[in-house]
Every structure is written in C-alpha cells, then in structure tokens.
Design goal:
The chain is built from 4 helices and no strands. By secondary structure, the protein is mainly α. One of its GO terms (cellular component) is plasma membrane.
Length: 107
C-alpha cells in the first residue's frame, strides 16, 4: 500500500482517538476508552508502516501537523470550542508548514 495512504490512515486514526478522549471522562467510560485505545494503536501501526517509504522527519511533521489542525477544526465544529482569527491563522500556518516541508523534502 502507498506510504501516503498509510500516513493518511494514521492521521485519521489519531484524530479519532484524540476526539474520543474527552468522552472517556478520565477513562471512566468503557466505550469511548476503547475507541481511544484502538484509535491510537491504529495510528502508530499505520505510521510505522508509512515509515517504510516516507522519511521520519516528513512523516512525523505531516502526521502531527495535520492531526493538530484537524483536531482544532473538529473541536470547533463538534465540541463547540472557541475559534477566532488567531486560532484560524495558526491552523493555516500549520498546514502551510506541512506543505513546505513536504515540498522541500522531495529530491
């Protein structure tokens, strides 16, 4: 499977795990806790597979950057967390940084 597809699966898995964290209520709720553990385990599994073809510095920057941006947007849309211009600008800068890193790491 393509390394970038595996990295995308890792990002989606991490976002699912992170999104479920609040619902665990300190890991006192079984269902959401299982979602978090499976999400994070899947994320690391897919990331490890992606690292077979994508350099670590690129894969980790994309994984953490896009994951952070997606969590911030989901927090705003789903959890009704605050969103303002500085936060939106920061998310945009994360995405721009991931793109620049990706372009700069190509031979």
């Amino acid at each position: 499977m393509n390394g970038w597809v595996l990295l995308l699966l890792a990002i989606v898995s991490e976002v699912i795990g992170s999104t479920g964290l609040k619902a665990t209520q300190g890991f006192s709720k079984l269902g959401p806790s299982v979602v978090v553990v499976v999400g994070y385990a899947s994320a690391f599994y897919f990331l490890s597979l992606a690292l077979k073809t994508i350099p670590l510095n690129t894969a980790y920057a994309v994984w953490s950057g896009l994951g952070t941006a997606l969590i911030a947007v989901l927090g705003w849309l789903v959890l009704k967390e605050p969103m303002n211009l500085p936060i939106a600008l920061g998310i945009g800068l994360i995405i721009v940084g991931v793109v620049v890193l990706n372009l700069a790491s190509r031979p």
